[in-house]
Design a protein that fits this description.
The complex is a heterodimer of chains A (about 775) and B (about 140). Chain A contains 20 helices and 29 strands. By secondary structure, chain A is of the alpha+beta class. The N terminus of chain A is likely disordered. With about 140 residues, chain B is mostly helical. Chain B has 2 domains: about 55 residues, Beta-grasp domain (Ubiquitin-like (UB roll)), CATH 3.10.20; about 80 residues, Orthogonal Bundle (DNA polymerase, domain 1), CATH 1.10.150. In chain B, about 40% of the residues lie in helices and about 5% in strands. In chain B, α3 crosses α4 and α3 packs antiparallel against α6. The model of chain B has no long low-confidence stretch (mean pLDDT about 95). At the A-B interface, α2 and α18 of A face α3, α4, α5 and α6 of B.
Amino acid sequence: MTADAAQRPPLRLEDARLLDGYGRFTDDIRPEGVLEAHVLRSPHGHARIRAIDLHAARGHPGVVAVWSFDDLAAIERTMPMIIPDPRIRHAKTQPVLAATEVLYVGQPVAFIVASSRYVAEDAAELIDIDYEELSAISVLRDAAGPQAIPVHQDVADNIAGTFEAAFGDVERDIWTAPHVLSERFEISRGHAQSLEPRAVVARYDADAGQLNVWDTTQAPIPLRANLARMLRLDESMLRVIAPDIGGGFGPKMALYSEEILVPYAALTLRRPVKWAEDRLESFVATASEREQIHDAVVAFDAEGHILAFRDHFLYETGAFIPYGLNTPFVTSMHLFGLYRIPSFAVRFEAIFTNRMFCCPFRGAGRPYAAFVIERMIDRIASALRLDPAEVRRRNLIEPAEMPYRYPVNYWDGGPVEFDSGDYPRMLRDALALVGYDRVRAEQPKCWRDGRYRGVAVAVYCEMTGIGPYEGARVHVRPDGRVVVASGVGSQGQGTQTTLAQVVAAELGVAPEQVNVTVGDTAHFDWGIGTFASRSVVTAGNAARSAARRVAEQAKRWASDLLEVSVEDLELAEGMVRVKGVGGHGIPLGDVAAAANPARGRIGHAPEQFRPGLQADGFFNPQQGTMGAGVHACIVEVDPHTGTLQVLRYIVVHDCGCVVHPQIVEGQIHGGVALGIGGSFYERLVYDDSAQLLTGSYMDYLIPTAAEIPHMEVVHLESPSPHNPLGVKGVGEAGTIPVAALLAAAIEDALQPLGVRLMTMPIAGPDAIRAAVRDAAVA
Amino acid sequence: MLLSDFLRVELRLTGTHVGCEHGVCGACTVLVNGEAVRSCIMLAVQAHGATIVTIEGAADTDPDLFRSLRQAFTECHALQCGYCTPGFLISAYAFLREHPNPASLTDDEIRGGLSGNLCRCTGYQNIIRAVRLTARARATPTVQT
């Protein structure tokens, strides 16, 4: 094997067992003698609990325990703030089980443990709860209004927190600009809907004094810390394992009551306990995201150059705000698109409603920012009768201006900086690939023939790879295999393979020689989690640093064994060998064995010595990286049926150095598909009493293979200057511009009808038909 | 008891996954007497006397087809989290077995044939590619002597 081969992207190391049906997802784990739990949830959007009678349920055959709030006195009964923030005025988190009131449909009220889930669900029907129903607020606009009913008695205006940022003199620039446009954008809730529902299994090992918890979490290490605090245990008693996870997309980052209740039950009942969410529960009791109402104003000159941009928006957080202001903050800082904006002001209020709380969902606030700025650019183009692609070109940040830094800080405290890349080239490439000019030229004929064909382009930025840090441990075993452990879990991103590649390249072995464990606190217990497209940036660079240390150790040991100076040694082909002399060296495994001798004198500096080939590495990014891209598509719309056909879909993106092209492309495909679902098909609908009306896959339409178009993806690689691997995050990138792009393309196709689409999701064929009707009336 | 629960809990065959429990997502697809069936909307007693093939046993039923499908899935990166994958493999397997002339399948037909399974990670593109690759390979004429 050559050094080249060591760096050739391998087939994914995760695949074999997943393909053969031997993956280990949380719900596959079934300890001997396991009990099953069920959660009784609030049927009301807002109600006072007058009384709870658990008596009949407790007496039901097969039932082992039935708990309400009063039964949890031994533990911390209020869920923690995951992301505290001084700008939050009311840091409301939910009680583990509802105490005196319920604030959303789906809120956990009672917890039943029984011989099986079938029995537990039967017992739940015997629980008698006396509710006094109260008025519920289900719509953001109502919750923020002057006559709003408070969700929390002590928060009269429903404002959970606020944020504002600005630079330049926006008011003056808007006042003096030759052109000003203002628009309202309404964005409603969508749901990540990973195909694997959430699940938790816990088993207390009395012999070892250890509570083992398997959990579908994106953040096993923070979960362990929270569990220890809430159950009042020492962290060393707890082992949290995030096994194979069937998709995350954000909501599995949040912390839910079941994740506390199941381990607590296993500990107190001294029996293994398991809970797995069903699909309806996933809709009402797993966090969703994103109702926002934006009022944006853009000032521009006669050539379409942006002079000032101001946005005020409302963000709906649901009944509680455990994830803080993260999502609307991310929205705020992505309103720049890839553009030069001389003066800027943003302000938002986070508003409580009687719905399940929110947490970031793939894209995490960015798609809504892209929707606002990109749609505004389209408005500028139509106001000035310019081509929308041309208006984009005129405003793009040029490579010569980089690093282009805005005088605002991102939520990790680092600057918002456009660090590298060639945005005009990405735009040019995307337009050329999609055949933009050709579609434009053919459009009049299409319209004459009654075919509504449109083309559009949209750009996006993605601040990714933020801190605080991640880490990894690299260890070479005497048999030559390399073992890597990191705290970041994987929900399908191929993290094991990518980390194996990074480490293999440093140690001169094949990636297949590397075993990677992620998301098990027994293997590595420093880290934060998988979110914000940050795993490869943070854990990847940490693994590189750990592997470099191990390589140095290996060279020092081999230098003694071979009596060759360290500078003359290299790691390649599974050996530590003399540079340039083929074959003269020692297998890496033998060096590992020699580094841990059973007898004898070692002779290294006594206090600097460490046995074996093993090191930890950490990486704390000084600032986020800035991924970027341009999407373009051609659509055909039937104005009579409202159906949409995507004829061509182009992605030109830059995520810095690509470690594994196939995995990166897969992330983009998945992101675009999620974006198409979220733009056109999927929408959570609530009635006036905050009851969810779309709680199944018959009502909440996830696109199938028949709806998702073929995507053509081009990688442009401009290395990030902010980390040694030169990588930028990519996990969320594909999703970001899709709604803006589809709205623009549909509007473009329906130009003769004068349709306008300022809501996201566009909400399917019905919405298109309605927009066509509205345009006809106007 | 649901067939999916019976397979997963009683027989400990956990390769069959449960995604929606209302027959839409296809993650629980198994073969019942050779036909692709959603095991989350079938009762175990309804399968009395039937032959059931789950992902764990698929390779024993038609090794050539299943192995080439499996290989194509990994080569094409047709799986990410892997949760929907067993259902897709079983559906694709039934689809290709039933189709008289897989070589003639267009991408649109493959997309239609697999539209009973949801995937939230891949955007389907590489799944379609893997199935197309398998269909083409399967149709390579073999000369009988």
